[in-house]
Amino acid sequence: MENSEYIIGRNSVREAIRAGEQIDRLLVVQGVTDGSIKEILMLARTAKIVVKEISRYKMDEMCAGMGHEGKTGNHQGIAAQVPAFKYSELEDVFQLAEYRGEEPFIIILDSVQDPQNLGAIIRSAEVMGAHGVIIGKRRAASLTPAAYKVSCGAAQYIPVVKVTNINQTIEELKKRNIWAVAADMDGMPLSTTNLRGAAALVIGGEGTGVSHHTKELCDLVVKIEMSGKTGSLNAACAASVVMYEKRRQDLT
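and the corresponding structure tokens:
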């Protein structure tokens, strides 16, 4: 089917159905009938979603390239065929914050290129109460089936916005009285920095970090104090640490 994508994996498919996502049909590997599959099929019947059984070979072939580093995606015997992912608008982020009665809390990804990291960051952002995730159109991962699966369905509950220019977006947010905070090794210690209130946390890409010009646009630069010998965290882990500290401060 043209302009379609696949959500794979049991948790992701379950959350897509529960969230009321438009699903064209559900594909299930023949003979897979254990407990969680039965639960998903019951949800599908209630939602009047068409279910089709296919061979494991066919499912593996369909999910080729959806996994980490181009490997076959771990479909766990089930996939949902959906229209191509529709990104949100920036205003959707503000509307969610207003609906919750909270000051905007936004995650901006500067050239994060690994779909696994993107999916993990979206999941952490949703759990930590962020109102939206912003990604760039160029030199950045898109919300592919692999990224969606890693998000465990979180992409259904938080706006994901794709913008043409990250720096212009930061400038627009600052005009709306939202502080921009970059996470980088040359910043102030995270534990001593006040992150309360309306803020956009900027997380840099794998290996390159936040770009020089983007850091210059930010109001603050913070670093995660580390004591190990490795000396660094990947983008998803770093984002989770900074988001948690932001959330902790807002609740105290």
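(Above: one complete record from the training split.) The mean pLDDT is 89.
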